[in-house]
Amino acid sequence: MKASLKKGYKKGTMLLVCILSLSFFYNSANAQKLFFVFAHAGYEQPSNSGLMSQYKFGLGGEAGAGLKILGKTYLTGTVGYSNFFDKKGGPGNLTYVPVRFGLRQNFLPLNILFVHADVGTAGVKNNVNSGSRFTGSFGGGAKLGPLEAEIDYEMIGKKNGDPDGSNNWAAFKLGWRFGL
């Protein structure tokens, strides 16, 4: 009886040591977080006279990745798609497909808060105009585990034939972020 109890104790101790070792290595690797990927769904509300005069709102999504470059600073790349819905009698729905690169800075322990800024180019198309435009965005957000929420201010450059005023909007995004 004592021999089997001693044998069980040894096995239990070895199992505990293995679990603690794996936990330590997982936490060390988890703390490094050199790379992350994300995906967000978004609601866009035109915020100035240009887009507000012709579009009700937009819906879309984006996906991207970040690579740690220094401390809590990441180089990011994002690809997205949005559709702005035309008001009656306007130029038709507007599709917006951005490709942007930028920086993201995390704050607080566990990187709960962040700010970012991106620039790039976007394909823009409605029934009147189409083409490539400069695009940019900046904003901030928070993450809780893999869930991430952010508010951005986004804009696209103007070309002849665009409505008067600014082409920008506030974007409310919700999605997931996974660090590797």
Please state the second-level CATH architecture of the largest domain: Beta Barrel
Any idea of the CATH class of the largest domain?
Answer: Mainly Beta
Helical content, roughly?
10-25%
Q: Which word captures the global form?
A: elongated
CATH topology of the largest domain, by name, is Porin
Helical stretch tally: 2
Organism: Arachidicoccus soli
Protein name: Outer membrane protein beta-barrel domain-containing protein
Describe the structure using short key phrases.
180 residues, alpha+beta, Porin, 8-stranded antiparallel beta barrel, 2 helices, Outer membrane protein beta-barrel domain-containing protein
How are the elements arranged and paired?
Layout: H1 2-32, E1 35-46, H2 49-52, E2 55-70, E3 73-86, E4 94-107, E5 113-125, E6 130-144, E7 147-156, E8 168-179
Summary, kept brief:
The chain is an alpha+beta fold. The chain is built from two helices and eight strands. The chain has an eight-stranded antiparallel beta barrel with strand order 1-2-3-4-5-6-7-8.
